[in-house]
Design brief:
mainly beta; glutathione-dependent formaldehyde- activating enzyme (gfa); 7-stranded mixed beta sheet; 3-stranded antiparallel beta sheet
Length: about 150
């Protein structure tokens, strides 16, 4: 197994994902992800939290809502992670922070309700809106954004 490695722009924070393949590489178009990354969408790839090791430094975390936290480098600001505060124990790293982002070809899209009308990106990749089921609606019903 060759770990998936990456880190921030300044090198203060580095990580290794001890997996053969990242899980659920995707882009999220929701407004929270747009604001958190400063981009048109967030590109993320995941693994079990127990499979992610910080090999140099550690990120700072921001509770972007009452349901999730985002990790970033406190020195250069690079967005690094996203994780819900659930027992699922999954964490997602930003694909752009990976040393070899080719290992995380996008397989899906989410948050399409926030997709900007003029963005044409991965149109052939399947996707859906954030709240696409009763279970999702229940989970997100009490979400409060902390992004201002």
């Amino acid at each position: 197994m060759s770990p998936v490695i990456g880190g921030c722009q300044c090198g203060a924070v580095r990580y290794a994902m001890h997996v053969d393949r990242v899980e659920k590489p995707h882009v999220c178009h929701c407004r929270m992800c747009q604001r958190a990354t400063g981009g048109l969408f967030a590109a993320l790839a995941g693994c079990a939290k127990s499979k992610l090791e910080w090999t140099r430094g550690e990120p700072a975390f921001f509770a972007s809502s009452n349901l999730a936290k985002r990790g970033f480098c406190r020195d250069c600001g690079t967005p690094l992670t996203f994780a819900y505060d659930t027992p699922e124990a999954r964490i997602y790293v930003t694909i752009g922070s990976m040393d070899d982002p080719e290992r995380a070809a996008i397989e899906g899209q989410c948050g399409l309700e926030g997709k900007l009308s003029w963005v044409a990106f991965c149109e052939e990749v399947p996707g859906g809106v954030t709240v696409d089921s009763a279970a999702a609606a229940e989970f997100y019903a009490g979400m409060k954004s902390n992004q201002g």
